[in-house]
Amino acid sequence: MTSSQPRFAPGTDTASVEPALAPLLTAAGGRWVLAADGEALEREFKFKTFAKTWDFMTAVSLQCKLKSHHPEWSNVFNTTFIRWTTHQPKGLSAKDVELAAVCDSLAADFGEVVEQQQEQQQLQQEQPVACTLSGLANRAAGSAGDCCVPKK
Predict the structure, then answer these.
(1) Domain spanning 14-142, CATH architecture
(2) 68, 87, 103, 111: which sits with the fewest CB atoms below 10 Å from its CB?
(3) Element (H or E) spanning 75, and its range?
(4) What is the pTM of this model?
(5) Contact 61, 71 (CB under 8 A)
(6) How confident is the model at residue 120 (pLDDT cuts 50, 70, 90)?
């Protein structure tokens, strides 16, 4: 479910995160949509080949390791769906917004196919819905167990 208002994780400095979030959203010309009742950012990335897609995902995974944060994501051939959210505490966090922006930058570096993305963005503005692959992320997140709960 999409939302027009972000729901930030408790403890998030919204005064510093909101200005970074705004340009990422479709309403401001970005390509990310708020989803999961405003607790997540998601979008699809499309590349010319599977190899380019995999290179992009590898680069994102390296950033995840550096930031100690991971997305809910899926890949089918040349398309990757990414959802950023924080599970503990639940909601959007500064890391989610920062890594969404990193994804945009990496996608440009790896030659994202933008024309098709712009068509999809226009459709989302007409009928705002979560990305078409979000069902995969929902199923994956639901079966991931306690991956995001700190170990004691």
Answers:
(1) 2-Layer Sandwich (3.30)
(2) 68
(3) strand 72-76
(4) 0.77
(5) no
(6) low
